[in-house]
Structures are given as structure tokens and as C-alpha cells.
Fold this sequence. Notes:
alpha/beta, 2 domains, two-stranded antiparallel sheet
Amino acid sequence: MAPRSNRVLTLAQTEFTERMAQSKHTLRPHAETAFAKELKALKAKDKQYRPQGWELSPQAVVTYLLGGELEDGTIIEPKYFGQRRLIEVAVATLVTDRALLLVGIPGTAKTWVSEHLAAAISGNSTLLVQGTAGLNEEALRYGWNYAQLLAEGPSEKAVVPSPVMKGMTTGKIVRIEELTRIPSDVQDALITILSEKTLPIPELNTEVQAIRGFNLIATANDRDKGVNELSSALRRRFNTVMLPLPATLEEEVKIVETRVNQTQSQLEIPSPPLPSDEVRRLVTIFRELRSGKTEDGRTRIKSPSSTLSTAEAISVLNNGQALATHFGNGELHADDLAASLTGAIIKDNQHDAPLWEEYLETVVRQRKNWKDLYDACRTLL
């Protein structure tokens, strides 16, 4: 019989192998896992100054977000399509002791950018607090293991660290999603952390001090219901970067195609390439309904209550592609898009349905080669 130490080692190796095999089938791997090869290549070629606690230099972080080609021919895939200066400002903010607040309407890639910034800077994007209306201070500060607390009283062992506390003690980037959904009195628990870089633990008469590399990225939007305004004291401790919607039709089409193809690859859906014409039609509809006018500016349009963001367009295409693959001939057609498109636009039946019908009659029906989409959408009204 093998010695116990060997049996334990073999068991540990088996468990590790099983976890690695399972990770290959993860539905949505973290950014540092999905793009590990790119991050490794960037780190190997990165000769610029790296702030203490950073995995990459600020220049390399920007390259990781915006894409490029390294000296050895490694292609870095773009993660964000937009103004380079916005990403440079965001990265420069995190070099200082100021926290970063990414603001924009839903679907402007705030979460996507924050995740990839954390992955590139800290090699870890998992220190995350999801903001909700019911969030309490423990989620931002620390909690207690009540069994140990009752048995031994307050002690360091009984403290349950929040992601913020973990980030402070390990020198990592912490992400807070939907900061404005958190109640205002809970938001203000961050003020001491961001200004003094300390987290008091009065029950133990001590505090946690942040080490270099720690910083915070928060996201927020002011379009949804249930938004809590940030206090002026808290807002002053953030540098705010506004992420806009794509400026041009071509830019938005490129973003949508790239993200849909990535999703199809991750989910291993056996689909043919997206028809560019269908993507362009969908993005055109979303842009026109968002802006309240047609692309040529000649016709005014009433906008629905839905956001119709780029993220929503990606979702519509993903669903249409799934329909085409499993219940059609595999190629995306107007019939496959119509159901998801209608559902994305009509959120309030009384308000949005008449506007969508009017748009179909005054715009879609009049366009050459759009009859199939018009017919498919009309059958659902």
C-alpha cells in the first residue's frame, strides 16, 4: 500500500486535474482566465514602469483594453471599442490614490471595462460587490462568523472580510457594480476607506490599512429607477469617466459583431458567421429609436421607454442565432430576429407598442429590401 503522503498528493493532483477540466467548460470564465495568454504575453514583453502591486504597466493595460500587436506577433484582441483617451484617463486615475467611477447608461460596457481593468492590473477581477437596494454595510466593510463570535468573542478569526477588505490587505483592485443602487447611508461607508485608505474595526480596537496596489472601480448609471444619488463627500473621492454609446453606426456594428462572435465561441454554438446585413439592420433600428430620428435625419421618431443599448442588440442577436441554429436552417434570418427585437423594444405595452407599430409603418415598410423584417415583426403585433 502506498504511503499516506503519496496517497494525499495523488488525491490532490486528481482534484486539481478535475477542477482544470471543469474550468474549460465554465459558462463565463473570468477575464484573467479567458485572456490568460494575452496577459502572459503582455507581461513578458512589458518593459515600461509598473506601479507597485500592478501586474502590467499603465501602457500595457491600455494595449490590453484597446488591442494591438506585440513584437513577437501576438495579437491582443480589443476589449473596448471607443475613445483611447477615455481608457487612458481611467488607467491614469488608478495609478493615483483616487478611485474610478465609470458612468453611462446601461449597455455602455461599464462592467466589461471594469472587469478587464481589474484583470490587467491585479490579475484578479473577482473581488466584486454587486450593488443592490438591500445591500448592508457588512458587504462593504466586514461581517462576523457568529458561531465563532459566540464561542470566543470578538477576534480576528471571527471577522469575515468583505471583498473591499480583501482588496486592501492584498493590494488588489476591487469592483463595485451599480454603486447608485446602494442606499446612501451604506455608500458613505466607503468615505473613510477612500480618503484614509483604512478600514476601522472598532470591535477589536484596530484597523486594516490598505497596501499599495489597492484601489476601487465603481460603475453607476442614472437612467434606471431606484437610483440613489451619491453624496458630495463620496463623489469627490472618485474621478468620474463617462462611457458614451458608440459614436457611429460602423463602430456599433463592429462592437456587436465582435461580442456576438465571442459569445458563440464560448458557448460552442455551431453557427455560421453572422450576416452583416442583419447586424446592420438591427443596429440601425436601435440607433434610430434611441436618437428619435432616422440615420439620414429626415424623419422624426418617437423613442420607446426601453434603453436599446449596444448590450441589448448583442442579446437580441444571440437569441436570434440560437433560434436559427436549433429551430431553423442555421442561417440568421428576419424571422429569427423579430421575436427578440420586439421584446427588446416593447417594455411597456401601452406606451411602446404604438410607437413600434408607427416606426414599422413609417420607416421599416418604406425601406428597400426590408420587407422580410417588416412582415416578420408585423405578425407579432
